[in-house]
Queue: 2 jobs
Job 1
Amino acid sequence: MHPITVTVNGTKYERQVEDRLLLSDFLRHDLLLAGTHVGCEHGVCGACTVIFDGAPVRSCLMFAAQTDGHRIETVEGLAVDRDHLHPLQQAMRDCHGLQCGYCTPGILMTMKVFLEETPNPDEAQIREALSGNLCRCTGYQHIVEAVKLAAERMRK
Amino acid sequence: MNFRLTQPAILIDINPLNELAGVNNGAGERLRVGALTRYRNLERDPATAQHLPLIAEALPHIAHPQIRNRGTIGGNLAHADPASEMPAIVLTLGGRLRAQSAKGERWIDAADFFVGALTTALEPDEMLMEVELPKAPPRSGACFMEMSRRRGDFAIIGVACTVRLDDHGRCAEARIGLCNAGDGPVFATQAARSLAGRAIGKNEIAEAAKLVQSEIDPGGSIHASKEFQRHLAGVLTMRALTKAGERARGSA
Ligand SMILES: Cc1cc2nc3c(=O)[nH]c(=O)nc-3n(C[C@H](O)[C@H](O)[C@H](O)COP(=O)(O)OP(=O)(O)OC[C@H]3O[C@@H](n4cnc5c(N)ncnc54)[C@H](O)[C@@H]3O)c2cc1C
Ligand code: FES
Ligand code: FES
């Protein structure tokens, strides 16, 4: 067991974690933040993407023990409250950027950092940035539209 | 580990070794990349863009941004996946790697480092510390190209090449390496040699591409037969050599 202190969505958690506990399982089962989804468990699908010290990473490819002293953001930390979604969430809703929603948390966390680094992206850049997130429902068209709309609103 | 290919009894997290991360761009002709340098840092490193154009061009092909945010150069090279871009590039550039154990350190040439599929010359008690690569010389051009089924997938075949011109605009030296073309990264010795001292024209390039096709031994997969991989290797070699030649002519 490892004692860890990790900040998730601004809240500090002190926990004892098993050596082999994945970060994705720690978030879902220990912290009960089940918004982070798990699809493939080997880095391919992107559903488990969270923001680790400011960079989007696969939470299924890290151990919880590695997060000691670090900062994590998950989809639960995006919206201010129920009535005030993050511009990306609002745009996904307005553009029908999700169907089953399984891929959505990973896409939101990836796109959040992408738009911070690339506030005025063209479509090719958006598609490139989305390439690490699989969506089996939407065909991506509406997700691309949503990211464009969010970018536009966030620039204002 | 996620594929259950290894189930280590003891696992050491080397991520906190910050001194192994970063690019050391000294005044000399070589540049050193620490084992813990992440792909993403290399992508954003101006010295890499300037002196290692081959790597700069290949990085966006490696997996996805979320993987490149964590994946390290040392982990990539020590893992030595035959389909991976980096080993082929380090071999093409003729880099060398520094290994360290409790007993001491040694430098290993890339040609000796990559032994086979997922196998390197590292001893069980050795750790990879850094890789040293020659900076692109004047009058040279580099090009990396690969074909994969989707963005971020491992390459069906990938070609890395560099061309250096002499004062008469002929090829002084060419280097050609491939990924996913054999048991490990492949250096196409004969193809590279065939270009030395000659013009980089259509015929010379076609000849070199033929030699590349005979020098590789791709494994084939459900995504691409060996024949298709060999065909692609020829096509990509022609395109990459042409581009590298153009770039060499364009550089001062
Ligand atoms: C979805 C996905 C797509 C990918 N696509 C590509 C791709 O297109 N091209 C590509 O090249 N790779 C690809 N990869 C692999 C990726 O590049 C990994 O980052 C790379 O294998 C190294 O990972 P790492 O640095 O986390 O090393 P780890 O996974 O931590 O380590 C890999 C191996 O190297 C050993 N090791 C690590 N560091 C050292 C060291 N300093 N000294 C000695 N041994 C060491 C470890 O013990 C382990 O055996 C992909 C991975 C994923 C998940
Ligand atoms: S569950 Fe982590 S990438 Fe698929
Ligand atoms: S909405 Fe169902 S996988 Fe993307």
Note: Chain B has two domains: 19-134, 140-251.
Job 2
Amino acid sequence: MSKETLDIQTNSGRGYWRSLDDLAQSSEFQARLEREFPSEAAELRDPVTRRSFLKLMGASMALSTLAGCQFAIKQPQEVIVPYVRQPEQVIPGRSLYYATSMTVQGFGIGLLAESHEGRPTKVEGNPDHGASLGGSDAWIQASILTMYDPDRSQQVLNAGKPSTWADAAAALAAAAKSAGNGIRILSEPNASPSLGAAIAALTSTYAGTKWVQYDPISGDNAVDGATQALGAATNVVYAFN
Amino acid sequence: MAQVFNRRTNTIVRLGIFVGVPVILALLTATWWYYTRSDWVRDVGVAHAKVQPAGNIPGAGGYSHQLHVGGLKLDCRYCHTGVEISSNANIPPTETCMGCHAQILPKSTKLEYIRNSYEKDEPVQWNKVNDLPKFVYFNHSIHVAKGVGCSTCHGNIASMAVVYKTEALYMSWCLNCHRAPEKFLRPQSEIFNTAWTPPADQIAQGLKLKKDLNIRTSSQLTNCSICHR
Amino acid sequence: MQVTALSLRRLVARIMVLGLFALFFSACHLDMYDQPKNKALTASDFFANGSSARPLIDGTVSRGGLKIDARTTGREGGDPTAAYVTTNPISIDANVLARGEARYKIYCASCHGEKGNGKGPAAGPISKGGLGLKMPALFYVDQLKGKVVANESFTLDQAPDGYYFNAITHGVANLKYDPTKPETAENPKYTMFPAAYRIQIVDDRWAIIAYIREMQKNPPAQK
């Protein structure tokens, strides 16, 4: 500390600092500045780093701006691409609504998905669903973007390589045979009766099978608190009226 | 010491101010108008003759409204099924073409692109003729329901072998009707008549239609969010 | 002299740069004219076949799209294997008949004729096609007598309303269609293509049927 105190004293002129570490120019602080996020947020462990992503985006945006500005005095010629076989229900320009659901923290939330010409465009709560009565939250609103996520899983993968459902079933069966009673299934929380029945069937075949459900953002603490207060595992639903 | 400028310079300067400056301004205005406001820049009257369908498919015969609408008297709605119920009038799927052309001219090379599309399940691409900016939310169904006929905007389609734009679709042109719809309204029975011409007492009839069809006032119709959402 | 030439050149260069900027601005407003969003039937490079319009997923049912009654299936109780309904499930009045007449003239008359006599403008060309289809005077009961409907227990003149509804909705299948061969003029899947995606309002189909029944009862005067 003594060297750093010295640095402060020898600093001449007006200086700005954001923290005592900054003022002291400690080595820790220097190391942190060099990192991407000073706020200690974890960097994405994606092969596409934030920096290279921004570079690519910047470049493509610059290019697209140029493309749009190729001294186009007239509007560029657009094409209309109709259906080959138009489904009976589809009226181009009008939306269709589909009742669907999404698993949030283990529970299916009743939703309505709006679809334009077969493209989902908006997700809202289903007014006929008792749990939401048409309400939704930020995750549900944002879930529409996952439909068009280029990283969205398109097919069965085995160790990162494309595979088929038949191969997956065969591989699972082989693994189950060799593992015997040591099977562990790790999943997000899921209250689906059909998935539950499937896993129950597996458990009845391989007695030692365990299903572990883990959610990084879970309401377990709240449920534990409600258990202590009310004596049973309970979800608290507030009635604001 | 000799004069720097002789007397003639006065005339030249006056000419410059009173003729030259206006001429330059007029030229600039004309250039601006030509490149942003003219029919030319919006391709009015230009038939996309050799490129319908899009993509320069060799040997493809262009779709002729003159033949199908003018000759065979097909109703607009036979193909443009959405015009009464949707914002989009709908461009027919290949299946609509095949509905007749499975049996009519089934071996014509001009129609090969239709058969290819139907067999390979690949859509036919058509050149867009009337291309509204994406920030305009035009709805066909309300216009058709409230007495604006097809030909008011699209011209006499039944006479066009290759469809071309008959209006430049500038906002001022839209407002022309939104300010005074009675100039263009027609009875419900004439909406799909491509050759309709306004009667002598159009304003009187239009005002009556405006009242009967509960058309909003011009101040409501010129509200920004009527077209821009 | 040297200096003047240089400044002149500079001036020209400046004007050219300004002109370039002006061109940029004149062009860039088109970015808002053509936004990357998809309106109905716009082209798309996101999907493989170039169209933003997608087929619906098999087996999905949209809200209000369930077909479980006579009105949406043309069959008794909405059961796809049950008998065709014999009465029109919508109530018929003058408005419905007028609607039916208008819809008939849009979707049917080009082949079946405005007066239901099979003499529409497209009927002639169709008869020259691969199947040599003859456009019957489809809607006059006495001309349909004895014409057996394949795979059905009734003749055409006694075809129930539900049969008409299914013909409009699903088309009339070509019984000689060979699914192993491509759909050509000699081997079409339909003799009448489905029209459900064109006559999209279900009640319009029933209105057309009501109008056809009206024509059969009181045939319009033929010229």
Note: The beta strands of chain A are 79-80, 95-104, 107-116, 119-125, 157-158, 161-162, 184-187, 210-213.
